[in-house]
Amino acid sequence: MSMLTPPGMGGQYRITGDKYPRMRPPRRRGRLVAAVVASVAVLGLIGWGTLQLIDVFTGGTKKTATAGTKEDCRTRASTAARGTALPKPGEITVNVYNATNRAGLAKDTADALKKRGFKIGDVGNASNDYDKKVKNAGVLLGPPSAQNTSLAVLGTQLTGAQQRTDATRKGPDLDLILGDTFKGLAQPTAADQALTALTATKPTAPAQKSC
Length: 211
Fold this sequence. Notes:
Blueprint: H1 29-57, H2 61-82, E1 93-98, H3 105-115, E2 119-125, E3 138-142, H4 150-155, E4 161-165, E5 174-178, H5 188-200
Parallel strand pairs: 1-2, 1-5, 3-4
Antiparallel strand pairs: 3-5
């Protein structure tokens, strides 16, 4: 019996020869899983650190972009607050009509407006809709687009006139219809001051949504 044969075991279990089976320990899958998890964690930390370094060396691109967006919003809001630019007197054509019994009133007023830089269109008597029916200083009539723009500019030249818009009108021309209490245009100094104040507080555009 071989020396490798355990006691009490017969020749049936006898081990002979010079080759022996190798006894390997079982693989531990737990260590393999732990190694994979650790590798993923390390890669994640490396990626996060890289992003932080990029942000540092680029000076915070995201913050700059956000600041730029806010600046654009402020610019648009400022532009909206300024509204539509008011036209100059030389860009406004005025038709002057006389609704009173005083002869030559429309021509004299038209000449005075021309000296102040306005363009003059038709000059004559008012239509039946207004003739002898304007009890105040006058009526300023224009298209809806002239509201708070050219009508306001013309209004600085005449105190006490009523401003009206007519949706059926075609073209940008304005009508100045002189009424019973009209005594002349505003003094040039007063008209210039009113125009300067109007320019400083010109109408605002419709409010826009915040960014």
